[in-house]
Every structure is written in structure tokens, then in C-alpha cells.
Amino acid sequence: MALKLGDYKTEVHNDWCPGCGDFGIVNAIQMSLAEMQIPRHKAAIFSGIGCSGKTSHYINVNGVHTLHGRVLTFAQGAKLANPDLTIIAVGGDGDGLGIGAGHFVAAGRRNLDMTYIIFNNGVYGLTKGQASPTLKLGEKTKSLPSPNTNYNVNPIGLAITSGFTFVARSYAYDVRHLKDTITAAVRHKGLSFIDVLQPCPTYNDINTRDWYSGFDEVTKMTKPRIYKLEETGYDPVVHYGEEMELNEKLTQALIKSLEWDAKIPIGVFYKNEIISQYDKRIMDKIPNYIENPPASQIISSNGLPTTNLSEILDSLSV
Amino acid sequence: MSIDISWLIGGPQGSGVESAANIFSRACASMGYHIFGKREFYSNIKGEHSYFTVRISDRIIHSNVNDVTMMVAFDAETIFRHYSEIVPGGAIIYDSDIIQTKADEVHTIDAQYKSRLQKQLGPTPIIQDALDFAKNHGAKLYPISFKTVLSNMADEINNPRLKAMIRMYNVLGVSFSLGILQMPPQTLLESIDAIFSRKKAIADLNKGAATFSYNYAAAKFSDFAFTLKSTTKTPGMILVQGYQGTALGKMACGCRFQPYYPITPASDESVFLESNEIIDVVDNRPGSTLVVQTEDEISAIGMTIGGALTGTRSATCTSGPGFSLMSEALGWAGINEVPIVITIYQRSGPSTGLPTRHGQDDLLSTVFAGHGEFPRIVYASGDVEESFYDTARCFNYSEQYQMPVIHMMDKFLASSVVTCKKFDTSKIRINRGKLLDSLEPDANYKRFAFTDDNLSPRSKIGLENGIFWNTGDESDEAGHITEDPELRIKMMDKRQSKLDHILKTMPDEEQAVSFGVEEICVISWGSPKGPVLDAIQMLKSENIKIGFVQLKLLHPFPKDYLGFLLKNVKTIIDIEANHIGQLGELLKQNLQKNPNYYILKYTGRTMTSTEIYDSIKNIIQNKASARQVLTHGA
After folding, report:
1. Which residues in chain A have their CB less than 8 angstroms from residue B392's CB?
2. From residue B82, how far is each of A98, A242, B71, B122 by CA, in Å?
3. How far apart are CA B576 and CA B584, in angstroms?
4. Which of A47, A56, A53, A41 has the alpha carbon at shortest distance from A10?
5. How near does any CA of chain A get to the CA of B31, in Å?
6. Dihedral of alpha carbons B589, B594, B600, B606, sign
7. CATH architecture of the domain with range B510-630
8. How do strand B287-288 and strand B278-279 relate by DSSP bridges?
């Protein structure tokens, strides 16, 4: 029996602020899971700490609400032990690019087949609006005592240079685009990253829904800041993997990632399925890893171990 | 007459001392002798002084002793560091080309040590001074020009390249020793074959050198009082490196996932697991241990938890500094009742401390690690053999009681090389507690359902009809966030009550091991077990009876069983490798009993049975202060 959108929703009371961009993201994840008909027990949402951390409780698949900054470590552990699972890790920009930046880079280098979504709103909402790593230098959101003194992290650029093989951006209020992006990310073979622009209506009074829509400059002709890469003929895909092509694709993605303010691109920046996934690298040393991964192995029979150590123990015998 | 001798080989780090000691140990072990070896080394890759002490006996032994019966030295520093440890009648086999070397010329001898040398040997000590000192104290000197022997050998086999291969000095040293000890040469050659089994050319070269130097020394020096000619061989023995106990235990009991971050002295275990990652399984396709090197210890424990949530037996392995980083996630595993095992090979802290040296100063850190209150088990092994079986126990505890288990090991255990009974996989039992295999479609599964024994049936990610939620927040039975005060009480009580449940259900002999209770009784945990057992045996032969209780379960503290054991004890001696007597602190806290005496060591060097014997003797003779601090070891 086909699973419906409602099957992916829980009854848990949602306590995000009215108008929060997070609602769009959680809806898009549920729509994407329903679209792909992922069996509920085979999917898991891992979340970090902060408003976005509650996401896992609102989606009716396995949900693991982890620690601040550490969501990727838990998620990768589950995927490594059971590669059959569909795993989506979610978290805020402070979680993933501040306290968790080391894990972000390391995860990129591994390239496991899973998806990471950052809810990017420029502030630490749940602690009342401090500057997050993506807030621009010199900006002062409303609860900051003084303007931000740090340069911002470029999430797309960092993902590309860390080794993520699918790097995209979407917008929390464009749920259809976001859903399509999530589906493409989950279907991508390798580690996919989506930077979701997610206005925080309570603490970020700069990058608001109106700002993204261009309503802040009503004196000129009102034009949304956000535009779609796929509508400009941009080709993010690495087709051959030759050095020159690879460098071109990486460079064009980096250049696009620097566009901000007047024009903000969303869509897929970079996609490379030629680089090996981590499970393939494991299979080079453990050939039956996929057919007999850690989670499937039979370790005991009637309470006794099935492991046979006799060869090693014989080599130690004197 | 029974054999009980200690052999020491030293040299610059990276010069092959360890493989020399392995050849020596294996040769002695395959003769049937019992071996207790340990390696001491600096936090350094090449050049600093490292040494290996091997005790050989025809009786079962559990420790090293202070005295050295035979030392092999082809570098000046080994002589300068150890000349005063030679027992009367013992031997120094040394390179006769270095007798004029001054302590000043050995740049790895630090100022502290140099001033101690000067006190004993005069203002400008040279090797000859140290040798004279040893000789005056009863040592026999066996000078050999290593260079000349190598050169003669090179001429004989017509291989001039050999003359420059000073790396061969190690195998020369081993062979001189065994020649003087009159061990049958065939044993030496077989040992070399076994050590270099994957490198035939190297094995052949070493065997040639061994035969030549063995014959040279055997012909030249035949007056040594100790020999290793023959002994009765106990069948079914293995020669094992300390870290292999927990590694093989993990393989045997079904640990199939180990993320880790490199740290001394813990990494050897993970590297061994990865080197043997394909696992032979009875009547089935091969299994495997997936070992993943992570970006830090926080990631290592995060991944371990992630793996455990899929129903995989998962562990990580670290030392004190890495464990400090893991403590936040430890609490997450506690509140979410996740079965993980953290193997800790302790070293000397605080901070970086003595990074390659021994210590047991993380007991309180593991018992109390993490913010908030949550249950965990801290379990300690006392020797390599028991660490194999304890590893399997730790995984059972983690799944039966659904909580993190911290398995305490240390550098003493990690870097010892011992003979013991072959590990027996058939003695291991696997108990997965309330792990579910299947669920009905209408199961309405709740991960933290309240039950009579406060243990909820445990699903795993991927189990049909068994989806569940976890959170580091307080949660309801389903695993969703709650801040309800009544639910908070019920959930806290549910988790914390498991500690009592452990003490009620874990067999006494798994909580603590009594080696006899006497009016004077030693309590200890972990690696002092071996030296304590040997010291007690020495005292017993003098008709002095000392009891010994080895604590294995350190948290929750086995107060009932220990209280019962210590009921009639008049004098408690606490022996540990730390400064404050951390077990003593737990004893005070849980049993309101004070240890009467402490024997403590925190030089970073391992305890010897000699030191413990001497210290207990002081106590018996009323010559001891309440706190004796041990100092032996270079």
C-alpha cells in the first residue's frame, strides 16, 4: 500500500514561531519521503541542537535528536553500520558550520551516501539571536549588542572544497523547489548538501522573507533576489571527471557561491558521481561489506559466538 | 632449581629494540618458559631511549621485578640508564667499542639524569665508570665488539653490505644473550622465522646473523650461572601483546564497528582490529569489523552511538584525553540507554601528562564523567588474559542493562607481552538483552516504555514496525521531548534504578575477585593485580598471609559484596597507580571505610612485584607511613 504524505507526519506539537522558515523545510522533507516512497523504518532523520533540532520529532520515521554540532557523526555511524538506510541529517548553520565545522569537513572527505540539510538563518535562534557563522561581517541583527565582528562562512564553498559531491541551495518558502532538491539530493550517490535559506522571523530582521523577495527596495522595480540556476542554463554536473572539467565545475560553483545581496542563486551548484562513495572504498578492503554489513552480521548462535579465531590464535601459540 | 631471570635490552627508539625483544620472548616462550615482558618508551619517534624488560620463569608469573639478570647494551644510553639495576651475579653484554663514551656525548640524557649520574659516578662519567660500578656490585661483564662481529660475519658470508647494517645489532644482542644462556639455537631460529614470517629475505638474513653471533658468544663465554637449557612445556599457551586481549575479545563477541581517533597507548588495539578486519565465521560467509579513523574523539563516540542504534555491537577505544572529549556524548548514550563500549587504555595525566607512560588516574574521571546524572558501568580488567573475557562481558552488560560501559585498561597492560592460556572463544556467552528481532504491525512500539524491571524492549533503526525516537532532552516513553515534572521523575527513576538492578543481578565473582581474605588485605583494581599476586606469593613463602581483593566493577560500586569480603579485615592496603588513591576515595564514599595504607605510584612507570613486596613488608614491620610512593624504573 502506497504511503501518503500524512504517514510521514507525527502528532507531536510543533512549537516553532509563527511564520518560521522551518515549517517549509519539514514539509518538504515529508513530501520528498512520500514522493520516493521510502519505507518508514528504513529512513532516519538525525538532527542537531537548536530550533531545527526538533525536526526529527515531527517526521514519522526513525528520529535521532543528537548533540550540538555532532549530528553528522551520529548519522554517519548509523549509515556505516547499516548502509541500507536512507539517512537525512539536519541542523542549523551554527550547529553545522560553527561548533560542528570540523565534522562538516571530515564528512565531505568521506562522501557517504546520505544527505545533510542546513537550516541557514544567520542567527542562533533558541539562545535569543546571537550571530551565527553565516551572518555577514558588520551586520547587526536586532538582538546583537553590536555589529558582527566575524567574516562569514560560505557554506556552498566550504562544502565544495571539503569534498561533498552534491552541493545545492534552496529556499524555505519555495517548498516545491526545496522538495525537488531534497529528492535529488537523496537520490544522489554520495554525500549531498543543501544550504536552505531560512528566514528567522523573530531574530533575523535583515534577511527576512520580504528581503529575499526584494520588497525592501520598493522604490525601484520590485524583483526577487532569489533566482534559479537551472533556469540560466547552468550545468553543475561533472560528466567525465577529467582534471580540466573537474576544475572548471568546481570553479564555476565557487564563483556562483559568492553571489549574494542583489542576486542570490538557488539550485544545484555542483554534482559529481564519478568520485567514489565511501562504501565503495570500504569494499576495496571488505568485499562483502554491502551484502553483509555490520548491522546484518550474525554474531551468535544459541548464545555462543560464531566468530572463529582459531587462525589468529594458532599464530600466537607457542 | 627454578628459573626466574630478567633480561633487558635497550636502544634508541626506532632502532628495532621491540622486534629484538619479540624474538627473544618468543624463543623463550616456545621453550616452555613463562614470559612477562614490558616496553618503556618516550613520546618520540626516533632517538630517545626505549627499553624492553622480559622476565622468564618456569613458574607462572604475573609481573616484572626490580632486578635485571642480564642486560644487552649496544648503545651508551642503555648502560648509563640501567647499570645499577644488575643483580649480583647478573651480566652486562655490551659493545666494547663504546667504553670511552662520555655521558656528555649522549645528547638524549637530560640534565636531571646527568646530575644523578654525576653523584654516583663522578663529575665526568664515561661508560667504563658505569661498568666498573656494576662490576663492583657483583655484575659479570661480557664485552663484545658488535662492529667486529658484524664485519667478520660479512666477510664470512661474503656480503660487504652487512658491515654497515647496525640495525642488525639487535638480533646480535639477542643471539649473544641466548648463546650465553645456552638456549638450544634451533629455538632462536624458529622464533626469527615466526616473527618475520611475511618477509623471508629478512628472516634469512637475521637467521644467518643469529647463528654466527650465537656461536661466537657461546664459545667465548660459558661461565654464566643462569641457563635456559630446557623446561617442561605447558600445552595450549599463547604469547600475546597486551592490546590483543581486548581486540580479540571484540572480534569474538561480535563487535563489528569501531570508530576511533589515534592516541597512545590505545591505537594499537584499533590498528590490530583493522589489520584483521575480515572475520572467519563458523558455517557462514565471512564477517568483518568496520574500523573507521575519525576526525576526533567526539566523532568517534558519535559514530559509535550511531552504529549501536542500528543494532550493531559498537565500540571505540581511547585514552584519558580522548575520553575527556567524549563525555558530553557519554551522557547522550546514558539518557538514551544506548549500549556502547568505550575501551580506555589509561596513561598518565593530567592534560598531556606523560603521554607514553603508565597511569591509573582516570578512575574518578570515568565514574563521574559527563554533566547530569545518568547510569554507566565502569569495569576494569587486571591482566591481558582476563581482558579477553571481560571484553565480552562488557558488551553483554551494555546490552542487558542498556547503557554505556567503560572498560578500563591501561598502558601497563597495553605494552606488556605475556604468555597465558590460549583464549577460549567457547567460554564466551553472548547476551543481547531485550534487543528485538521483529515486531507486529500493530505493536505501537515505544522505545522507553515503562516496564517492571525498568528495561524497555530495544528496537534498532531499520527494524520494521519498530521506528523510534531518541533525544538528548528528557523524553516521554516514545522518545519525544518532554518537560513534564511527573514524567521527569519517572524517567530519571527508570534510568537510575538500573544501577541497583546491576548490583542485584551481576554475579558476585564478576563484581570483584577475592584471592583470599586475611586480616591484612590489599584492595586494588586493574594492572596492579599481577605485581600484587606475585608479591603476596613471595610473602606467603615467608609465612606472611596477605589477602587480596581485586575490584572489577567500579561503578556502580559493589558495596554489598565488597563490604561482605572486608567485614573482618583489620588493615586495608589500597594499591593503585595514581596520586590520590582513587579507589580509596570510592571506598570511603560507598562503604565509609578508610584504607589504612596506600601504596601508590605515579612516575608513569609500571609497578614491580619487588616494590609491592617491600612496601607490604614495611607495613607489617610497622615501618611504613600511611602513604608509600613507589619510584622504581628508568
Report:
1. 305
2. 52, 61, 8, 17
3. 9
4. A56
5. 8
6. negative
7. 3-Layer(aba) Sandwich (3.40)
8. antiparallel
Residue of A nearest to B254 (CA): A299
B71 touches chain A (CB under 8 A): no
CATH topology of domain B240-427: Rossmann fold (3.40.50)
Single-letter amino acid, residue B509: E
Q: How far is residue A192's CA from residue A188's CA, in Å, rounded to a whole number?
A: 7
Parallel, antiparallel, or unpaired: how do β-strands B416-421 and A43-47 relate?
A: unpaired
Examine domains B240-427 and B510-630 and report if their fold is the same: yes
Q: Which residue is closest to A84 within chain B, CA to CA?
A: B462
Q: Which letter does DSSP use for residue B548 in this model?
A: E
Domains of chain A, first to last: 5-316 (3.40.50.970)
Pairing of strands B547-551, A300-301: unpaired
| pTM (whole model) above 0.80 | yes
Residue B472 and residue A84: Cβ atoms within 8 Å? no
Closest CB from B240, B305, B481 relative to A57: B481
- Would the CB atoms of B430 and A304 count as touching at under 8 Å? yes
The predicted complex's ipTM stands at 0.98
Cα separations (Å) of A127 from A67, A72, A202, B36, B312?
Answer: 15, 22, 12, 57, 36
Please name the member of A76, A82, A310 whose beta carbon is closest to the beta carbon of B462. A82
A/B interface, count of CB pairs below 8 Å: 241
H-assigned helices in B288-446? 297-309, 320-335, 363-368, 384-400, 411-414
Q: For residue B277, what is the nearest residue in chain A, using CA coordinates?
A: A286
> Superfamily for B4-220?
Pyruvate-ferredoxin oxidoreductase, PFOR, domain III (3.40.920.10)
Is the torsion defined by CA of B2, B87, B38, B531 positive or negative? positive
Of A62, A299, A317, the CB nearest to B313: A299
Residue of A76, A289, A318 with shortest CB distance to B26:
A318
Q: What is the mean pLDDT of chain A?
A: 96
Structural domain boundaries in chain B: 4-220, 240-427, 434-506, 510-630
Show residues of chain A in contact with B328, CB under 8 Å.
67
Q: What is the pLDDT of residue A41?
A: 98
**A56 to chain B nearest CA, in Å?**
8
Q: Where are the alpha helices (DSSP H) in chain A?
A: 22-36, 55-58, 71-81, 93-94, 101-110, 155-162, 175-187, 209-213, 243-257, 278-283, 310-316
pLDDT reading at B114 higher than 90: yes
CA distance linking residue A88 with residue A79, whole number of Å: 10
Q: Find residue B38's DSSP bridge partners.
A: B53, B416
Distance CA B481, CA A64 (A): 11
Question: Nearest residue of A to residue B233 by CA position?
Answer: A318
- Give the per-residue pLDDT at A220: 62
Dig out the grid coordinates for A318 from the structure: 607457542
DSSP bridge partners of B318? B344
Residues 283-302 of B with CB under 8 A from A: 283-290, 292, 294-296, 298-302
Sign of the alpha-carbon torsion through A78, A80, A86, A90: positive
CA distance A135 to B55: 64
Beta-sheet strands, E only, within B218-285: 237-241, 257-260, 278-279
Q: Is the pLDDT of residue A51 over 80?
A: yes
Assign B2 a pLDDT band (cuts: 50, 70, 90).
Answer: confident
The CA distance from B20 to B37, in Å, is 12
CB contact under 8 A, B425 and A77: no
* CA atoms within a 13 Å half-sphere pointing along the CA-CB vector of B577: 31
- Banded pLDDT at B591 (limits 50, 70, 90): very high
| Cβ-contact B552, B525 below 8 angstroms | yes
